[in-house]
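Ticket opened by: R.M.
Priority: normal
Category: complex prediction / small molecule

The reporter submitted a protein together with tryptophanyl-5'AMP and asked that the result be attached to this ticket for the collaborator who will pick it up next week. Submitted input follows.
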Amino acid sequence: MEKVVSGIRPTGNLHLGNYFGAVTSFVKMQEDYDCMFFIADWHSLTTQPKPGDLRRSVKTILAEYLACGIDPEKATIYIQSDVKETLELYLYLNMNAYLGELGRVTTFKEKARKQPNNVNAGLFTYPTLMAADILQHKALKVPVGKDQQQNMEMARKCARRFNNIYGVEFFPEPQDFTYSAKALKIPGLDGSGKMGKSEGNCVYLCDDDKTITNKVKKALTVSGAEVPNSPKPECIENLFTLLEICSAPEVYKFYDERWNDCTIRFGDLKKQLAEDMCNVIRPIRERIMEFSSNDTLLEKIAREGAERARESAAKTLREVREIIGFTPVAR
Ligand code: TYM
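Result attached by the on-call engineer:
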């Protein structure tokens, strides 16, 4: 069965961007592929979280994975830091990664701009750690949102370069994958850009109905369409994207027509959007509460997942060592 790998950083709760951009694909893919979904706790260290926050976030994401429908009977769920083999591969890949290409990664440049006092080496080599996550399982498909495309390009480069340097066909080139027609960028409610934790514009899967409704109510809009069939400004386009993913197609069509004939009332649109968003999130939120109080279950899932992930990574690393030229005599 084809291998699939993906992960999410534990920097708080999952939001609708994570859910529609990645997790809904995880849930579908576990039916047809050999899936490994992990919690990228090493990656979250680039922003130096406090130990208590990190511990809480890892547990939260684990409970949220389960609440979204990732099934440990069908997919392997593990915590990145439980699989030390990743670090060894990370080191090998870093030996073949160049400063120029790492420096050109947009997410690095953005992060460097946002945290100028903490432009650390981990941030710089973030894409090679991500490549190690993927290549250690020789994954072919990686379900991610649009914002991860450049990191995926780096993962393919790492695979190609390793194969070229050692003259082998060892690592397959992993492809980013989504079930939707194109890679998704779920927008935030602040009128521009993507939904993201550091942007502070998120609707979280643990938000209650009132919180969701208030967030949607406050979303930026314009005064209304003045010319029939005119293009939508970004903040309106964003609301329509959210309608498209949370509401029924006829609801989207109705408001699209109201925009085009200039009779749209954003109060009505927001009311409808909030209601539909609450309907998507409510059952997930209820399951999050159930799972997060079940420490025994969470520990069992993480332990069993770690074992399976380690076994898969260890097999790859044994072969990698041999390819690189480490002699088995030495151990
Ligand atoms: P992270 O934690 O930022 O996001 C997790 C996943 O959610 C997707 N996502 C979005 N998709 C669409 N619209 C949005 N607004 C939105 N916000 C987040 C992301 O594309 C991602 O798929 N580097 C990764 C974690 C990672 C990883 C990996 C992923 C580490 N190693 C190996 C795949 C394979 C990250 O920071 O994702």
